[in-house]
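TICKET: design request
STATUS: open
ATTACHED STRUCTURE:
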C-alpha cells in the first residue's frame, strides 16, 4: 500500500467510524492491521479498552511505559488486570535507570526539566516500542484537553510513523465511567481520590473541584502533555 492509498484508507475509516461505537472500530482495526498494539497507562480510559480488546482480540499486544516512578496503586492495578484477564502486559522501560539519570542530569530531573524527564522515561521508550508495529490504539478523548479536541478516531501519527486509533475519542468521562460500572471493570483507586488523570507519582496531584481534569499533571509548569501525543 503506497502513502496515498494509506491516507485515503485512514480518511475513509475516520469518516465511517465517527458515529459508530468503539467496539466496531476496534474490531476493524485488529482485522485490518493485525500487527497492532494497545498503549495502556492503567487509567480509566485504558482499562475500558483493555476490557473491550480482551473480548474482541485477546492475543493483541498490550504494553505500558514503566517509568519506574508510577504510583503504587498503578502497579497494583496492572497486577490485578493481568490476573483477571490472564494476560501479560509488555513492560517498556527507559534506557536509563533512575540512578543513571540522576548521575547524568541531576537528582529529581522531573522538578527542574520535566520535558527532558518525559522524553527519557516516556517518549524515547515509546518510539522504540512502536517501531515494532504498524498501528497503535490509545485512550485519547477529545474533551480531555484542548490539545486533544481535534483528535480523529483514525489518523496517521506523523510523529511515530504509523496508524493511530482513538476509539474513545467521542466519549465523555461519563461514558467511560458508565462502561466501567456496567461491566464491573477493575480500575485505579486513585480515581476515587480526585485523580482524574494519573501519571507519574512526582508529577501528579489531586484535582480540586472546578479545575480542569488535567490540572493535576505537571502542576506549576506550562505543560499539559508528556509528548506522546501530537
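STATUS: resolved
RESOLUTION: sequence designed for all positions
ATTACHED SEQUENCE:
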Amino acid at each position: 500500500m503506497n502513502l496515498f492509498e494509506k491516507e485515503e484508507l485512514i480518511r475513509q475509516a475516520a469518516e465511517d467510524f465517527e458515529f459508530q461505537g468503539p467496539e466496531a472500530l476496534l474490531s476493524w482495526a485488529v482485522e485490518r492491521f493485525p500487527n497492532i498494539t494497545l498503549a495502556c497507562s492503567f487509567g480509566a480510559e485504558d482499562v475500558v479498552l483493555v476490557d473491550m480488546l480482551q473480548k474482541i482480540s485477546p492475543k493483541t499486544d498490550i504494553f505500558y511505559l514503566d517509568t519506574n516512578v508510577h504510583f503504587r496503586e498503578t502497579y497494583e492495578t496492572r497486577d490485578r488486570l493481568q490476573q483477571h484477564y490472564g494476560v501479560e502486559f509488555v513492560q517498556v522501560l527507559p534506557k536509563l535507570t533512575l540512578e543513571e539519570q540522576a548521575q547524568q542530569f541531576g537528582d529529581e530531573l522531573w522538578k527542574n526539566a520535566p520535558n527532558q524527564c518525559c522524553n527519557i522515561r516516556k517518549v524515547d521508550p515509546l518510539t522504540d516500542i512502536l517501531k515494532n508495529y504498524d498501528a497503535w490504539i490509545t485512550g485519547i478523548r477529545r474533551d480531555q484537553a484542548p490539545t486533544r479536541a481535534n483528535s480523529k478516531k483514525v489518523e496517521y501519527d506523523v510523529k511515530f510513523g504509523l496508524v493511530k486509533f482513538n476509539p474513545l475519542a467521542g466519549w465523555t468521562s461519563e461514558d467511560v465511567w458508565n462502561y466501567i460500572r456496567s461491566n464491573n471493570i477493575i480500575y485505579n483507586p486513585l480515581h476515587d481520590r480526585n485523580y482524574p488523570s494519573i501519571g507519574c507519582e512526582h508529577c501528579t496531584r489531586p484535582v480540586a473541584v472546578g479545575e480542569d481534569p488535567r490540572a493535576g499533571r505537571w502542576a506549576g509548569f506550562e505543560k499539559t502533555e508528556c509528548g506522546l501525543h501530537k
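CLOSING REMARK: The radius of gyration is 17 Å. The CA atoms of residues 65 and 92 lie 5 Å apart.
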